[in-house]
Write a structure and sequence with these properties.
- This protein is of the alpha+beta class.
- The chain has two domains: about 5-50, no CATH class; about 65-145, no CATH class.
- The chain contains four helices and ten strands.
- Strands 1-2-3 form a three-stranded antiparallel sheet, with helices on one face.
- β1 and β2 (about 10-15) form a beta hairpin.
């Protein structure tokens, strides 16, 4: 994905990040940057990405949403289960209570929740529980069919 960037020296360039951290500078008409400035612009852009002397910024997924409802469904937040990182692994929550058994029993007690050390195991349990997750007596599957009657 490309975006526009104004360098500290005032140059305006379209920038595309690559997997290896190198930047390509382009414009709709092709590269219009003088050849002698390319190395300097790369250095400016890399400095923008990671300021000198700063520790590396870490990004980690700590919460996964699991639901039979698509993301754009009006009820998706109501019927979503969340697999969240806990102190000792991964747990399943509806946002307030925690799953305390493999059969879908819930508790508000954080310490009573079942925890799986492996993310894939916790996601598998959440996938199994998601279709029958109930809110006000209506399962997620029933809610899906109410908002998607042709499915």
């Amino acid at each position: 994905m490309a975006f526009q960037h104004h360098t500290p020296s005032g140059d305006r360039v379209a920038v595309s990040p690559l997997d290896d951290g190198i930047w390509i500078k382009t414009t709709p008409n092709g590269c219009e940057i003088p050849g002698g400035r390319v190395a300097e612009l790369i250095a400016e852009l890399q400095a923008t990405r990671q300021p000198t002397g700063q520790p590396e910024v870490l990004v980690e997924a700590t919460r996964y949403s699991v639901s039979v409802l698509p993301r754009d469904d009006i009820n998706v937040r109501t019927y979503a289960l969340y697999v969240e990182r806990r102190r000792d692994g991964w747990g399943i929550t509806d946002g307030s209570a925690w799953v305390v058994s493999l059969h879908g029993h819930w508790s508000l007690n954080y310490d009573a929740a079942i925890t799986r050390p492996d993310l894939d195991d916790a996601l598998a349990i959440a996938r199994r529980l998601a279709p029958e997750y109930r809110v006000n007596g209506i399962t997620a599957t029933e809610a899906y069919h109410r908002t998607h009657p042709d499915a």
